[in-house]
Prior knowledge:
single chain; 262 residues; alpha+beta; Glutamine Phosphoribosylpyrophosphate, subunit 1, domain 1; five-stranded antiparallel beta sheet; 8 helices
Amino acid sequence: MPSFTPGDDPGSSFPELLRRIGLTADAGAGGDTAADQLHLPHATTCVALKYVDGVVMAGDRRATAGNLISHRAMEKVVQADRHSAVAIAGAAGPAMEMVRMFQLQLEHYEKVEGKALSLEGKANQLSTMVRGNLPAALRGMVVVPIFAGYDVRRECGRLWDYDATGGRYEERDYVTTGSGSLHAGTVIKVGFEDDLTRDAAINLAARSLWEAADADSATGGPDALRGIYPVMVAIDADGLERIADDDLAVRYEAIASEVRDR
C-alpha cells in the first residue's frame, strides 16, 4: 500500500491518489486521424427530467461506429451511487472509463471522510473528469455526460449537463444529450409540466426516445424482437430504481398503438 507524508497526503481525491503513485493514464492517448476515430463505438441519445419527487433518466441502447451499429444493448445510464446516476454520450470507451473512475471516487471519498459527497460536489467532480478528457476530445473522443440525482439536503431532484471542456451547467427542468437530443428535447419541452408524477415522467422520457429514434439513425428505438428497451431509472429520496423492461414494454406498446391509430 502507498504511504505519504502529512504534507503530501492526496486526501479523499481518488484521481489525485492515482496521480501520486504514477497510475494516471494519458488522457490524450489514441489515434490522431479522423479515419481512426470513425470506427470507435459512440453512444448517443440520453435524457433526464425532473418530476415532483425526484428525477427520471433514460438512454437508448444503440452504439454506432460510423455507419454501422456496433452494439445494440449498450447501457448508457449508470448508477453513480445510491442517489445519483450518470448518462453518457460520445466516445463509448473513454466515457465508460470515466464513469468507473467517478464511481470509485465517490466510494473513496465516503470511506475517507465518513460521509457521502454532496450532490453538487459530485457534479463538480464529474466536471473535473470531463475537463481531464479534453486532450482526447480534441482528437475526436468527446465525452458529454448528464449527471442527475436526488439532493438529500435540499430534498429535491437536480440535474446537470456538460460540455467537452468540463463546463458544468445545472438545468431547471430537463436536459438531453447526444445525436438525437434535438428531437428528444423537443418532445420533453412540449410535454413537460412542473407537477409531473413519476409515471408521467417515465412516459414522457419513453416518448422522447421513441421520437428521437424515429428521426435519428444513431438512436436505437425499442426492439421488441430482441427484448431490448432503453435503460431508464427513477431517483428519489428512497434511492435509485431501474424501470423494468416488462414495464417499458407495456409503455412502448401503448405508444406504438397510438402511432398506428394516428
